[in-house]
Amino acid sequence: MATHVEGGSFVEIYRSPLILPQSSIPAFNGPRRASTHIYFLLQQGQHSSFHRILSDELWHFYEGDPLNIYEIDPSGQLTVHHLGRQTGNEFFTVIQAGSWFAAEPEGQGEYSLVGCTVAPGFDFNDFELARKASLISMYGEHRELINRLAND
Questions:
Q1: Rounded Cα–Cα distance for residues 152 and 137 (Å)
Q2: b vs e for 85-110, b when ≥16 Cβ sit within 10 Å of the residue's Cβ?
Q3: Nearest to 49 by CA among 126, 127, 121, 120
Q4: CB neighbours (10 Å) of residue 13?
Q5: How confident is the prediction for the chain on average, in pLDDT?
Q6: Is the preceding peptide bond at 105 cis, omega within 30 degrees of 0?
Q7: Of the ranges 58-62, 72-76, 108-112, which one carries the lowest mean pLDDT score?
Q8: Quick one: which of 129, 147, 127, 128 has its CA closest to 137?
Q9: ∠ CA 26-28-29 to the nearest 5 degrees?
């Protein structure tokens, strides 16, 4: 696994051979693979910093401790998705394209191993890492969470 710019570690395990032409996905700057999939690992003390992408991202829980994913939609509504095997958690959730999101293992968990499927496929040209001050200026009601899970 390699270190991810948002935090944690990842390895890409699937990149669709099907290429979508830019004309079929006008919000994107160029063609994209139909979908991609990675394994994503967060260990104790690590988090995925707030970021957003142009595609929907599907999160699948595989192993380890529960994972909390924090999604702030464009209107500022915060949703906390709880992934895991425990009662009340889900094995799967979707983060909508354009939402800001971050993740961390719940409590003092040792690690969370998940999978992330992106469609149209992930491309770093579609990735934006949040700046703390900018995100707080847009969504000040979530200041505490943003201070904890966004970059400076």
A1: 13
A2: eeeebeeebebebebbbbbbbeeebe
A3: 127
A4: 10
A5: 96
A6: no
A7: 108-112
A8: 147
A9: 105
HEC assignment per residue over the chain: CEECCCCCEEEEEEECCCEECHHHCCCCCCCEECCEEEEEEEECCCCEEEEEECCEEEEEEEEECCEEEEEECCCCCEEEEEECCCCCCECEEEECCCCEEEEEECCCCCEEEEEEEEECCCCHHHEEECEHHHHHHHCHHHHHHHHHHCEC
| Across 18-34, average pLDDT | 96
| Residue 141 to residues 5, 41, 91, 124, 138, Cα–Cα distance (Å) | 26, 29, 29, 29, 9
Q: How confident is the model at residue 137 (pLDDT cuts 50, 70, 90)?
A: very high
